[in-house]
Amino acid sequence: MTAHGVIVGTAAYMSPEQAKGRTADKRSDIWAFGVVLYEMLTGRQLFGGETVTEVIAAVIKDTPSLDALPPSTPAPLRRLMERCLERDPRSRLRDIGEARIALARTNQTADGASAPRRRSLANGRREPVTGGQDVNSVRLGSPGRLLFLRVGANDGLWATALTRNTIDLSKGSLLEPGAVEFDAASDSLIAIFPAKDRRELVWLSRGGVTTDIAGAPFDTSTGDIALSPDGRRAVLAMRGPNLTGYFVVRDLETGADTRVPQPQAPSIMANGSGTVSWTPTQRLMYATGGIESWHLYDWPSDGSTGSRALADGLAAKMTRDGSRLFYLHDERGTYRLLQTAIGQDGTPATPKPVFPDADMKVRGFDVSPDGRLLAFTTQNSDTQFLNVIVTTLPDMRERRQVTTFGQNRPVFSRDGRELYFLSEERASGTGRGQLNVVAVAAAPFTVGVPTSLFAVGGTGGPSMSGFDVAADGRVMMTRSAPLAEGGEQRAVLRHASDQLIFLPCERCFSRSPCRCRTGARCPVSASA
């Protein structure tokens, strides 16, 4: 454990708040990622000095300049670095997962057209390789072989032939589905796979007694869940074998799942607390897109098509009468809460900010079913704690902070008389905390004394992630389930001598069987 005011870390990669001895969190890691990315692109340090003290002083007082970046650096990559190197942690990139989305888009221009293609050197000339935006980490493997990662679609490690300085990625072969990193030598390669997050649904009473819910365990990247208005179904955020996100609607009585089609494809699905929700008419609201380009849709929950665009934003909540919509709008990586009226035909009116103060950045929120109370999460700039605050709507004449020790993920009960929220242990990073509840009322405006219901996180317990509350007061949560075979984090080393690495035949581009030789697959080797 690191005491407040003690500086720990490599000076050149410290965030400004870390260099000042303040509490470091994941945003300091995002800053360090930006510094490393800068050094990779420029070949020089971002902050220099002859002594550690001089380096720390530069981190604290100097504004990062990106002038040394190569002129060919794609604009999306520049924007990503600017977001990672924001001196104010409140304006910094919210989650490192968004960096992966941005990196996958570095070959796409603002208007959606393809940026200049990756090129290879052929007899001193640059030749086009691909105009796709889904190719990363291109490396030469054994002679005549090219290895690369794909992201966004058919994720994993791919390979293709490189003959006579000609490359055709469309004839590549998927070697390691789901791999996120790799390295290669002339006769071997190593591929890195992330651990899967496997969960199962459970009910918990107010006393913490657990009851299983019908249905198979599922892989997820967020643990995001939401109960339908009638309490008979739940929408679950899932992760496919190729790491793409999608969601299903589960019948809580039978455990049967119905996959919900995406409103647009291909697409990156929004993830995080409260990013999927229900409308009063049993439709779903979810966002697709990316950094500063989220698009909010509603569509049927029965697996049919018929989506409709609602707004540019994510994490929407609708009042029980369907008259008002609240959602977050991404403004340079911080989120501003907007609201809009819904017309008789379901069309949203022009949105307006909930808070006139542009500096009020919201990390998560919920609206009471009658639309008279708003609970939102914001971050204290001094303590860095996330705190839940409750206010009245629409006047917001008074605000009350629920506690002073940090909370997140506010969820109103179905009758709007109670507010549930998670609180994390003071020792950050433990993944353990409490589910709490507090009585609330709009008239007169009151916020009671919070009560801790039961522990969350830790081995065998409910997960410290998304939850929802049924009309009878039971809480729906997820808990870790045993990983399926191959679900653990792992690195796979493959040698040509073991006949484990296979690439497509350079003549017929068949993986197996080869259609132009003897029927055997074509292994990577130093002589291939």
Summarize the structure in words.
The protein has 528 residues and is mostly beta strands. It has 3 domains: 11-93, Orthogonal Bundle (Transferase(Phosphotransferase), domain 1); 127-194 and 489-523, Single Sheet (N-terminal domain of TfIIb), CATH 2.20.25; 197-480, TolB, C-terminal domain (Neuraminidase, 6 Propeller), CATH 2.120.10. 9% of the residues lie in helices and 36% in strands. The chain is built from 5 helices and 38 strands. The strands form 10 sheets. Strands 3, 4, 5, 6 and 7 form a 5-stranded antiparallel β-sheet that branches. Strands 10, 11, 12, 34 and 35 form a 5-stranded antiparallel β-sheet that branches. Strands 29, 30, 31, 32 and 33 form a 5-stranded antiparallel β-sheet that branches. The termini are far apart. Residues 1-9, 107-133, 265-269 and 498-528 have low confidence and may be disordered.
Give the arrangement of secondary structure elements.
Layout: H1 16-19, H2 26-42, H3 52-61, H4 75-84, H5 96-104, E1 118-122, E2 125-130, E3 135-140, E4 145-150, E5 156-163, E6 166-167, E7 173-177, E8 181-184, E9 188-193, E10 197-204, E11 210-212, E12 218-220, E13 225-227, E14 233-239, E15 245-251, E16 257-260, E17 277-278, E18 284-288, E19 295-299, E20 308-311, E21 314-318, E22 324-331, E23 334-341, E24 352-353, E25 364-367, E26 373-379, E27 386-392, E28 399-401, E29 408-412, E30 418-424, E31 433-442, E32 445-447, E33 451-456, E34 468-469, E35 475-480, E36 490-495, E37 502-503, E38 522-523
Antiparallel strand pairs: 1-2, 3-4, 4-5, 5-6, 5-7, 8-9, 9-36, 10-11, 10-12, 10-35, 13-14, 14-15, 15-16, 17-18, 18-19, 19-20, 21-22, 22-23, 23-24, 25-26, 26-27, 27-28, 29-30, 30-31, 31-32, 31-33, 34-35, 37-38
Helix pairs in contact: 2-4
